[in-house]
């Protein structure tokens, strides 16, 4: 992902300057680079994909190659100010465990994922087709996502997991436009859900 990613810009605004950050599923490290160079943050990215790890390390970023399905036992409680899971949760089998781990190793977690309940997705399903959108850009038969979720589903999962929601809002992230926070009816009006979490 490019450093000019509109969702990254919005997420970066949520991270206090100088924070110690852990970016789970950091991809090529674009968001981590933005936080380190633009906000004076420190920390690590976690990524499994060989190409992404090499790309991030070529940029001089501190990226560890780890499988998130194995948890975060490497890190002590409260090791980070902020733990990010941006477009990562839908790729994990152990979503509930990773939510708990996010707020265990971080004082605050920020989770963002495609909101399957966004109205164009609902319309696509009514037409009998799986949606293909900016937030969900894959055909059903070749998607790396192992699940889809909604804003409302995640709020219920956080409660079941014993995770406290500090803030929650939707984001409308359309091509060629700045990402916009959506606080009114986010489950239907936003294509991305964003949650700020604590223990």
List keywords for this structure.
199 residues; alpha/beta; Rossmann fold
Question: Could you describe the 3D structure shown?
Answer:
- The chain has 199 residues and is of the alpha/beta class.
- It has helices at 6-14, 30-39, 50-58, 95-105, 119-126, 151-160, 186-189, and strands spanning 20-24, 42-47, 63-65, 80-86, 106-114, 164-172, 180-182, 192-198.
- It has one domain (6-198): Rossmann fold, CATH 3.40.50.150.
- 31% of the residues lie in helices and 25% in strands.
- An eight-stranded mixed β-sheet has the order 3-2-1-4-5-8-6-7, with helices on both faces.
What is the strand and helix layout of this fold?
Elements: H1 6-14, E1 20-24, H2 30-39, E2 42-47, H3 50-58, E3 63-65, E4 80-86, H4 95-105, E5 106-114, H5 119-126, H6 151-160, E6 164-172, E7 180-182, H7 186-189, E8 192-198
Parallel strand pairs: 1-2, 1-4, 2-3, 4-5
Antiparallel strand pairs: 5-8, 6-7, 6-8
Give a quick summary of the entry.
The protein is α/β, with parallel strands linked by helices and 199 residues long. The chain has 7 helices and 8 strands, in the order αβαβαββαβααββαβ.
Structural class: alpha/beta
Count of individual beta strands: 8
Strand order of the largest sheet: 3-2-1-4-5-8-6-7
The number of domains is: 1
Low-confidence stretches: none
